[in-house]
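Format notes (please read before filing issues)

Several people have asked whether sequences and C-alpha cells are stored in separate files. They are not. Every record keeps both together, in the order shown below: the sequence lines, then the C-alpha cell lines. Line labels are part of the format and must not be stripped during preprocessing.
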Amino acid sequence: MRHHYHTYSKHKENTLRKLHAFAALLIQITVLYLLLFGFIMRDFISLLRMGNVISYSKTCIMISSIPLFLYCLFFTCLFLFQKNFSQRGHKFMNNNYVLLITLGSIPFGFIGNIIVPFILMANSYTNCPQENLSKYYVKDVAMCEKIKRSDFF
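Then the structure lines:
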C-alpha cells in the first residue's frame, strides 16, 4: 500500500510541475508577443526610421531580452513535451555558444540605452518638455502638440 501512495504523490507532484510550466509558457508567450508586436517594437522601429517623431523609452534593453525569453520558452516547451528532459535539457543548457548569445545580448541593450539619447541629440532631436510625452523625441518642439499617445503603459 505504501508503494501505491508514493507513486500517487509523485504523479501528483509531476502534474503540478507541468501545470506550473504551462502557466509559465502562457506568460512567456504573452511577453514575447508584446516584445515582438507591441509598443516596444513600435518604439524600436520608430528609432530605426529616425523620422520627425521618435518614441523611445528604454527600448534597447527590452529588445535585447528577446533571446533570453526565447531561451526560457524553449526550455519550458522541452520540459512540457519531452519525456527525457533532463538528458536533452542539460546538453543544450551547457552549450556555451547558446549561453553567450542569450546572455551576451543584454549588455548591448544597456549600452544602447546609454548611447541612444546622445545619438538623438547629435541628430538635433529634442525631448518633448511635457511630462506625459517625455518618451518622445522630435526635430521641432512644436510637433509635441500634435502627438497622440497610443500605448497602454
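For reference, the curators noted about this record: The chain has a mean pLDDT of 81. The CA atoms of residues 75 and 90 lie 10 Å apart.
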